[in-house]
Write a structure and sequence with these properties.
The complex is a heterodimer of chains A (148) and B (425). Chain A is α/β, with parallel strands linked by helices. Chain A has an 8-stranded mixed beta sheet with strand order 1-8-7-3-4-5-6-2. Chain A is globular, with a radius of gyration of 14 Å. The relative contact order of chain A is 0.27. By secondary structure, chain B is an alpha/beta fold. Chain B folds into 3 domains: 173 residues, Aconitase, domain 3, CATH 3.30.499; 106 residues, no CATH class; 123 residues, Aconitase, domain 3. Helices cover 40% and strands 13% of the residues of chain B. Chain B has a 5-stranded parallel beta sheet, with helices on both faces. Chain B has a 4-stranded parallel beta sheet with strand order 8-7-6-9. Chain B has a 3-stranded parallel beta sheet with strand order 3-2-4, sandwiched between helices. Chain B is globular. Classes of the chains: A alpha/beta (148), B alpha/beta (425).
């Protein structure tokens, strides 16, 4: 199935990739290895997953003030998610993208979703994000009809 | 989500944005204004002080950011204390810190000092002479410092991420949002202590354990605890806040009858009804206490204390517990603090006791902020819920959570020893 949702771009941009989703917030400091893109918070459900190049969907950032710095480092090193989707306005992720634009003229899209739209997302969906914040979601069933 | 269509900028704001006070200040203001637009606020407000967590060296990008601001001539315009750095400037060579890391981290330290920041190098700035006052608008980074300033002192800071704290310090302006505003300081989640006896409430482990639990159940909301029957010390409140800001996103909590904005339950909630009510029993606390340990055996490589940084009072308590003993040769014993606190502890003679015991102090940083520990270290014991939360992922260590006394006893015996009677009687 393919459906389209409208998000609010906090930092606008285009991206496409596989959705990596959790309903648990994540601190990038102590939770994201900026050298590899691995989620390393051993108490987090996504522990061991690699988020580099994926569309990372998290309700909000947790804990440490250093989340922004770690995300900035991963953007510089090419190990950042392709985009981050949150519920509501998460300034910690948005700031990293804004500073990256100041420093090396690069951004990743940071988008705010309504709780209902966030809840429809599934791990393994494919998301295509447009500059206006429109997100086209292809669910896994559509992508691999032979899987069942 | 309320988003205003228009952000009002004062003449001063527009001057900064136009570059009339130099390109560094202009860049900082550009970032502040973009954040204000994202938040949808109508105006910026003044701040009187800042605490800068951006001093932590995380790699090439954080260094580049700091040096770019310096190159563009940016200077802070309010008193700005510095959080921990990425290296113990004068002591790193005794540890496993790679020399190029030390060099880069020192460059980043210099950059923030060149911008006029105060070299406090501590994650516990509320235990320095620069602690804020009740009601002051400030811009603080470092999650444990933020929650302490808001909750225990009653100063007002939003949760500032790294890189934004320095922009606030340079411009002295921040978005009028979040915990700066009275209405956002009301309690939202009520935690009611149910049959948690006094002897537990007086116990040092109660605070980090309650904090760990509070962070998990509160998420982004402001928790309020009712039923505290003892008057906690600052170091206990420090442990409570640091734990809650690690397991959760807590930037402000109220303890009814104890913290300054919560003389009564009604005051804590500003007359609103709680969005959620949770009874906290000994079973919940026991579960939270268990979660703070990931190691199960007796094996022990290292004891880490001072997360957040050890205070003078903590040095004193430790010195009393050490009581002329010596640690086991196979266990290392590390206390994290800052250069000022170490000097004070030295004057009081506490350092001598620690050195005689075989322990060491590292200053201005900590093992979570600098790659100082050898990879051979597998099992670490600590009295800090924050360290216990982060070390398994960041340092690939197994952790055991215990009291200060457990930590000392275990270091002497060379294996994990814990008095668990509080939890199992």
């Amino acid at each position: 199935m393919v459906y389209v949702i409208q998000s609010r771009p906090l930092v606008a941009g285009c991206a496409e990739g596989e959705v990596l989703l959790s309903d648990k917030p994540l601190s990038f400091w102590g939770g994201y290895d900026s050298l590899t893109g691995e989620i390393i918070d051993r108490r987090h459900p996504l522990s061991g997953e690699f988020a580099a190049g994926k569309i990372l969907a998290l309700p909000f950032s947790r804990g440490s003030s250093t989340t922004t710095a770690v995300l900035l480092e991963s953007m510089r090193g090419g190990t950042a998610p392709a985009a981050i989707l949150t519920i509501g306005v998460d300034t910690f992720y948005a700031l990293a993208s804004i500073v990256a634009e100041e420093l090396f003229n690069e951004t990743i899209p940071i988008l705010s979703l309504s709780p209902a739209d966030f809840e429809r997302l599934k791990n393994g969906d494919t998301a295509k994000i447009s500059q206006s914040g429109e997100i086209t979601i292809s669910t896994q069933a559509e992508k691999e009809p032979a899987a069942r | 989500m309320s988003k205003s269509d228009h952000l009002y900028l004062s003449d001063y704001d527009r001057e900064l944005l136009a570059g009339e006070r130099g390109p560094g200040t202009q860049m900082a203001m550009r970032i502040i204004v973009r954040m204000a637009e994202i938040l949808g606020v109508e105006r910026l407000i003044d701040i009187e002080a800042a605490h800068i967590d951006s001093s932590l060296y995380m790699g090439a990008a954080t260094l580049e950011f700091a040096e770019k601001l310096v190159d563009l001539g940016a200077m802070v315009s309010v008193p700005s204390t510095l959080n921990v750095s990425g290296v113990d400037e004068h002591g790193w060579m005794h540890w496993s810190v790679p020399p190029d890391w030390a060099e880069n981290a020192k460059r980043q330290m210099r950059a923030y000092q060149e911008m006029g920041c105060i070299p406090t190098w501590t994650c516990a700035p509320y235990q320095t002479e620069f602690k804020p006052k009740f009601g002051q608008q400030i811009a603080w980074g470092e999650s444990n410092a933020i929650v302490f300033a808001n909750s225990i002192i009653g100063a007002r800071t939003e949760r500032y991420p790294d890189l934004l704290d320095i922009c606030a310090a340079i411009t002295a302006r921040v978005p009028a949002a979040g915990l700066h505003l009275q209405e956002n300081r009301a309690g939202q989640v009520l935690l009611r202590l149910k049959e948690v006896p006094d002897r537990v409430q007086r116990h040092e482990s109660f605070y980090p354990v309650l904090g760990h639990l509070m962070g998990k159940v509160s998420g982004e909301k402001n928790p309020v605890v009712v039923g505290m029957e003892v008057e906690p010390e600052w170091d206990q409140l420090k442990a409570l806040g640091a734990a809650a800001a690690s397991s959760g996103t807590v930037g402000l909590f109220h303890l009814v009858g104890i913290t300054p904005e919560a003389p009564t339950l009604e005051d804590a909630f500003q007359g609103n009804e709680p969005e959620q009510e949770i009874d906290v029993t000994m079973d919940h606390l026991l579960e939270a206490w268990r979660e703070l340990s990931t190691a199960s055996g007796r094996e022990l490589d290292l004891v880490v204390l001072g997360c957040p940084h050890f205070s003078l009072a903590e040095f004193e308590r430790l010195a009393l517990l050490l009581n002329g003993q010596e640690k086991h040769k196979d266990v290392e014993f590390l206390v994290n603090s800052n250069r000022t606190m170490r000097a004070l502890a030295d004057e009081e003679g506490y350092l001598r006791s620690l050195e005689a015991f075989g322990g060491v102090v590292t200053v201005d940083t900590c093992p979570l902020a600098t790659p100082m520990l050898s990879p051979d270290i597998d099992v670490v014991m600590t009295n800090s819920a924050k360290y216990s939360y982060y070390a398994p992922g960041m340092l690939d260590e197994q952790v055991v959570f215990g009291t200060l006394e457990d930590c000392v006893l275990s270091a002497v015996e060379g294996r994990v020893v814990r008095d668990e009677s509080l939890w199992y009687t």
